Amino acid sequence: MICDIGRGGGGPPGRAPPRAPDNAQAIARLRDVWGQRYPEAGPHYLALRCWGLLIWQPVYLSVIAAHRSAIVPDLSGMIQPVPDDGFIIGYTLERHEPLRGGLRHRMQAAAGQLRNICATFYRELTQVLRVSPRAAESMQADCVLYALLAARHDDGAAANDWAQRQAIEWMDLLGLRGRSGYLTWRRADLPVIAVDRQVCCHYFRRRDGDYCSTCPKLDLAERMTRIDAESAVPA
Q1: What share of the chain is helix, strand, coil (3-state, %, to 5)?
Q2: Where is composition skewed (Gly residues) in this entry (predicted)?
Q3: How far apart are CA 111 and CA 149, in angstroms?
Q4: Given CB 3.0 to 4.6 Å as the disulfide criterion, which of 4, 8, 175, 230 pairs with 17?
C-alpha cells in the first residue's frame, strides 16, 4: 500500500514534511513490476512511468475538485494501493471535513497539498530510481493541464480559453511556470487544444510502444497530424 500521502502536515508548500511516512516498500514494488514487464524500455521510461502513476490521482482529484465542486478534500490520509499489475487506479480517503471556500482559496489549498505530496513522492522515488527534477516537474505540469481539460464543461473555444487561463494560475501556484502549456489550432473550423509537453515519457522505447501523439520529440506538424488522426470519426 502507498498510504498516508503527505502525512506530517506543516511546513511551507513545496517542502516535504520531515517525518512523512516511508512508502519505500510499495514504491520498490511499483519499480519492480514495471521494470520486469518492460526491461527493454530502460531507466528513463521506468522512472517516469512510476512517477506518473504515483501523482496522477492526487493531481486530478485536486484540480477537478477545486473547479467543479465547492470543496477540496484533505489528501493527507489518502491511500493508493499498488495492485499486482502495477496500475495505480483507485484510492480511499479517511472521513474528514473538507476545505470549503471560494475558488481562489480552493486552488491555493489544493496547490499547497500537491506541492507537499509531490515533494514527498519525489524524495521517496529517488531513493530507488534516478529521476530528473526537470522531467518530474514537467510531467507534473502536464498532468495538471490534462486535468484541466477533463474539468472543462465542453470542448468549445470558450472552454479551451478557460483551460488556458486556469493553467497559468495553476503553474504559478505550483511553481511550475514554463514546464508545460497548451497548443491550439483549428481543425475543419473547429477549435483544438492539446498539451504542449516539454518532456518525453519514453513510451516509444517499449517493445509495443510508439511516439505519443503529443511527444515533444516530434515536430509540431507531426504532433498536430497525429492528434487530428486520433480525433477523426470513422466513416
Answers
A1: 50, 10, 40
A2: 1-13
A3: 17
A4: 8
What CA–CA distance (Å, rounded) separates 94 from 86?
A: 23
Q: For residue 225, which phi and psi values (nearest 5 degrees)?
A: -60, -45
| Residue 163 in this model has a pLDDT that exceeds 80 | yes
CA-wise closest residue to 15 among 95, 107, 110, 118: 118
Interval 162-183 mean pLDDT: 98
DSSP lists the bridge partners of residue 12 as: none
User: Looking at this protein, which amino acid is placed at residue 54?
Assistant: L
Q: Single out the residue of 93, 181, 180, 173 nearest to residue 134, CA to CA.
A: 180
Compute the Cα dihedral for 225, 230, 232, 235 and give only its sign.
positive
Kind and range of the H or E element at 200? none
Report CA-CA distances (Å) from 221 to 4, 201, 216: 44, 20, 11
Over residues 84-106, the pLDDT tens digits come to 999 999 999 999 999 999 999 99
CA distance 131 to 14: 17
Nearest-angstrom CA–CA distance, 17 and 6:
7
> Above 60 in pLDDT, residue 116?
yes
Q: Which residue has the cell 517493445?
A: 207
- Domain positions in the chain are 24-231
The closest alpha carbon to 201, from 48, 41, 42, 34, belongs to: 48
150 phi, psi to nearest 5 deg: -70, -25
The rounded distance, in Å, linking the Cα atoms of 67 and 166 is 10
Question: Which helix (H) or strand (E) covers residue 213, if one does?
Answer: none
CA 57 centroid distance within chain: 7
